[in-house]
Amino acid sequence: MNTINEIYIDIYNKLKNFTSARIETELIISKTLNLDKIKIYVYPEKKLNEKELKLIYKNLNLRLNRIPLEYIFCEKEFFGFNFYVDKNVLIPRQETEFLVEEAIKLISCYKLKKIADIGTGCGNIAISIIKNIQTKIKIYATDISKEAINVAKKNATMHNVLNKIEFVLTDKLKYFLDNSIILDMIVSNPPYVTEEEYKNLQPEIYYEPKIALVSPTGLEFYSYFAKHSKKVLKENGFLVLELNPNLYKEICNIFKENKFCIYKTIYDYQNLPRVIVVKNN
Question: How would you class 65 by CB atoms within 10 Å of its CB: exposed for 0-12, middle for 13-18, buried for 19 or more?
């Protein structure tokens, strides 16, 4: 058993209980062999050597242990760009593209100049913004994790924007508060999965850094932003935040109680509230 077709059938059968078995089979073969997916079907009788077979089955076994494909191949596409990812950073989700789209619109419409991405992870938000803005802006990308900052810098280098983003190792808004830096906009995809929700998620989630996913009630970061961001956000500045749809009303109330205006809500593909834009009136 050493042709592409034979390997394909074997892998597919082993993954048949996975939601996207066919897609995952294609990815394991194509990414391991650095092969265009179409060639799996064009050259089904192509024989694989022992080294190739060994590597394919090594990656398959990792996947059978529910390690995400993104960590196996250290890659995730986001907003049309490929990003390096590993166990030190959250895997970017498609829903976060709504946040990036809205941030780009606001920067362009209001000529915003100074932006901070809080909890940058692999840097996907900051890098996607800077790659899509033609005007000169200052963007900070912060994280509490040194390992995450290193991954984000690696991605910035890969996308030729390392000199356009200031990476800062800090907790939330501390760097800006300590240095009296005033921002036009804060963007963030903060931890919003509750401890209770975390107990019942798919196995792959538990390979991702919990600190980037979970807060006790899912509201902690929003309460922090509502309490402290006015000190670093200019008048009429914006907060663009991804959120837990189950906590949408509570999050809106937190900002209203702290004299913010709910400027806009963006709904995802399931028509759930996914991103909130808050204005510092």
Answer: exposed
Q: DSSP assignment of 109-152, as one string?
A: HHT--EEEEES-TTSHHHHHHHHT--S--EEEEEES-HHHHHHH
Identify the H or E element spanning 100.
Answer: helix 96-110
Residue 261 amino acid letter:
C
Tokens read off for 217? 């009630």
> Burial code of 184-212, b = ≥16 C-beta within 10 A, e = fewer?
bbbbbbbbbbbeeebeeeeeebeebbeeb
Residue 10's identity, in one-letter code, is: D
Quick count: other Cβ atoms within 10 Å of Cβ 234?
15
- Measured at the CA of 70, the angle between CA 68 and CA 74, to 5 degrees, comes to 130
pTM equals 0.95
- The pair of structure tokens assigned to 114 is 């100074």
> CA-to-CA distance for 159 and 166, rounded, in angstroms?
15
Convert the pLDDT of each residue in 158-212 to its tens digit: 999 999 999 999 999 999 999 999 999 999 999 999 999 999 999 999 999 999 9
